Amino acid sequence: MDAVQKKDRRKNFWSIFNFAFANIGGSAVYMTFGTYFMVYVTSAMFTGVPKAQANKLIAMITGLIFIIRLVEIFIDPIIGNIVDNTNTRWGKFKPWLIGAGTISSLLLALLFSGIFGLSRVSATWFTILFIPIFITFDIFYSFRDVSYWGMVPALTEDSHERSLFTAAANFAGFGQNIVTIIIVPVVTYVTFFFTGKHNEGQPGWTAFGILIAVVGIICSLVVALGTHEKQNALRAVTKKKTSLKEMFWALAHNDQMLWTAFPYLIYGFGNAATAGLMFYLFKYVMDKPGLFWITGLIPTIAGFFTSPLYPIINKWVTRKTIYAVSMCSMILAYILLIVSTDNLVMVVTAMILYYVPQGFIFMAVILTLTDTIEYGQLKNGTRNEAVTLAIRPMLDKMSGAISNAIVGWVAVAAGMTGTATAASMTPGGISLFKLVAFWAALILHVLALFIYVFKVKISEKKHAEIVDELQHKLAVEGISDNSDTETTTSEKAATNSEEANVEVAAPVSGVRVNLADVVDEHDHKGLPGNGIGIQPTEGKIYAPFDGQVVLLFTTKHVIGLRSDDGLEILIHVGLGTVNMRGEGFINHVDSGQSFKKGDLLLEFNRDKIQQAGYKDTVLVLLTQGDKVTQSDYTQEDVVSHGDELVKVQLKK
């Protein structure tokens, strides 16, 4: 058992590591484009262009980005639906991660080159080319981002394991903080190397765009090649393609997804405005652009603690509480920034209160959204993995659009463009800056806090109950893979005319018990259904025939099997053991895995089950009531695993 546990932990570690590693590049690309593209546009893209013309081009780019991001309200869910309907030999997500990740990274480098310097040569041709290049970049980046976060529910259906994947990915989000730390030194150094000037010039921005593009491509390859989608029954049962109409209906009727997304959008608006203007705070308000690296260092250090700490804290504190405390910290940060922006100690203190809790907020939101997938599946009968998790990137990009629009507008309105300095700032310009960056953001954060706390109802406990209900519903209704919907009427008629005789061996050694005589955890006697019980004398479950695993509960106490002849059974270990949440159980197979008769499938600790006050009786249940025409159970009082347990006549 120890060797199996070590192997599983090692496999899970590398899966989490590879998934997380990818977000170094993903977050770096997002930060580079979402925050610093407008800094590049306003400060270097149009160097040498007459000021009036440069301002028009800045306004054009600002307006274009804003409009496209608003259109993405509809585009991102469609992208998620395309990803959800993808079915290849490499899985649902990998083709998009590699293809879209590579293309979007290359186009990022092109944009930061000013389209090979065209921005300073021909305004007309630059405008003609910029629009399709930007739109193409944005679409492919969306495919990459939606595929990345959409993988989480495909990697595991367990809420705690999801928190580990998400925490690791959020931890690796320090890629965006590294961008903040190195952007000024790298851009300035490369500019000086090529021009001899100590400023942030075009050569430096071009080099920086290429650097981030290379990192983005490498990280997309790592996550695509280093993770594995789990093919379980909860996913397979809703594997058929979903139309756009069905998708939007399902999203509109998933109230918990909507109530989670709405406050995150409001929070994002305020946060994006502040983050986008932070560079201007240090350069034009405080006159300390050389200290801007602090805004990258603080979240980087915080990320080394917040992401690993989240799963630990979440064991004792609910994510709603974590979210509320974190939001209060950010609200306090805004108050400090409003009171004083000329005191460096106050500003740094505010930065700590502002940046440190953001990781906790992100974790709480992304895990709540992930858990609404099963909520929507139970409520609406539709499972939308990538679509649901496309909501968060969509909201981030909407926030980014607001950020870009605000940065562009504030920069022009407050005179924070081109060769302007802190000395040239007017009191009106500073007041406008504070109103947008701090006051408006403060109000939005307070509103987001109240909405999340009072309207989001799906907790960790509620999600566990939903998964249990889904799995039990699936067990009762049958565990067939509903993805194959192409069988013709004539094929079905021919198939139903055939019958198969299937022999099921005892999966465990013990004493045979009729279902009518089984006593459950509440001391009630008798269970319904077609099956048989075994009072085990050992803690191992073996394969009763050659076949495939089609269902494995997250609690590991129920496993669904399909024989090569098409017979489906459930092996239910213990009564009341669902409440043990997998404690004392070790699975040796996963959903979708094939096996041979006699292979070890599962181990369970009988002592732990009994100490917890539950029954360790093993049930073998036939789930295809309409197809099973006859079942003859052994009359032997004692069986050993491998002995004949039941002969089943099955309509194929």
From TrEMBL:
<keyword id="KW-0418">Kinase</keyword>
<dbReference type="GO" id="GO:0006814">
    <property type="term" value="P:sodium ion transport"/>
</dbReference>
<dbReference type="InterPro" id="IPR011055">
    <property type="entry name" value="Dup_hybrid_motif"/>
</dbReference>
<dbReference type="GO" id="GO:0015293">
    <property type="term" value="F:symporter activity"/>
</dbReference>
<dbReference type="InterPro" id="IPR001127">
    <property type="entry name" value="PTS_EIIA_1_perm"/>
</dbReference>
<keyword id="KW-0769">Symport</keyword>
<feature type="transmembrane region" description="Helical">
    <location>
        <begin position="96"/>
        <end position="117"/>
    </location>
</feature>
<keyword id="KW-0598">Phosphotransferase system</keyword>
<feature type="transmembrane region" description="Helical">
    <location>
        <begin position="345"/>
        <end position="369"/>
    </location>
</feature>
<feature type="transmembrane region" description="Helical">
    <location>
        <begin position="401"/>
        <end position="423"/>
    </location>
</feature>
<keyword id="KW-0597">Phosphoprotein</keyword>
<dbReference type="GO" id="GO:0016020">
    <property type="term" value="C:membrane"/>
</dbReference>
<comment type="similarity">
    <text>In the N-terminal section; belongs to the sodium:galactoside symporter (TC 2.A.2) family.</text>
</comment>
<feature type="transmembrane region" description="Helical">
    <location>
        <begin position="164"/>
        <end position="192"/>
    </location>
</feature>
<feature type="transmembrane region" description="Helical">
    <location>
        <begin position="291"/>
        <end position="310"/>
    </location>
</feature>
<dbReference type="InterPro" id="IPR050890">
    <property type="entry name" value="PTS_EIIA_component"/>
</dbReference>
<dbReference type="Pfam" id="PF00358">
    <property type="entry name" value="PTS_EIIA_1"/>
</dbReference>
<feature type="transmembrane region" description="Helical">
    <location>
        <begin position="12"/>
        <end position="37"/>
    </location>
</feature>
<dbReference type="GO" id="GO:0009401">
    <property type="term" value="P:phosphoenolpyruvate-dependent sugar phosphotransferase system"/>
</dbReference>
<feature type="transmembrane region" description="Helical">
    <location>
        <begin position="123"/>
        <end position="143"/>
    </location>
</feature>
<dbReference type="InterPro" id="IPR018043">
    <property type="entry name" value="Na/Gal_symport_CS"/>
</dbReference>
<keyword id="KW-0472">Membrane</keyword>
<feature type="transmembrane region" description="Helical">
    <location>
        <begin position="435"/>
        <end position="454"/>
    </location>
</feature>
<feature type="transmembrane region" description="Helical">
    <location>
        <begin position="57"/>
        <end position="75"/>
    </location>
</feature>
<keyword id="KW-1133">Transmembrane helix</keyword>
<dbReference type="InterPro" id="IPR001927">
    <property type="entry name" value="Na/Gal_symport"/>
</dbReference>
<keyword id="KW-0813">Transport</keyword>
<keyword id="KW-0808">Transferase</keyword>
<dbReference type="GO" id="GO:0005737">
    <property type="term" value="C:cytoplasm"/>
</dbReference>
<dbReference type="InterPro" id="IPR036259">
    <property type="entry name" value="MFS_trans_sf"/>
</dbReference>
<feature type="domain" description="PTS EIIA type-1">
    <location>
        <begin position="520"/>
        <end position="624"/>
    </location>
</feature>
<dbReference type="Pfam" id="PF13347">
    <property type="entry name" value="MFS_2"/>
</dbReference>
<dbReference type="GO" id="GO:0016301">
    <property type="term" value="F:kinase activity"/>
</dbReference>
<keyword id="KW-0762">Sugar transport</keyword>
<feature type="transmembrane region" description="Helical">
    <location>
        <begin position="264"/>
        <end position="285"/>
    </location>
</feature>
<protein>
    <submittedName>
        <fullName>Lactose permease</fullName>
        <ecNumber>2.7.1.-</ecNumber>
    </submittedName>
</protein>
<feature type="transmembrane region" description="Helical">
    <location>
        <begin position="204"/>
        <end position="225"/>
    </location>
</feature>
<feature type="transmembrane region" description="Helical">
    <location>
        <begin position="322"/>
        <end position="339"/>
    </location>
</feature>
<keyword id="KW-0812">Transmembrane</keyword>
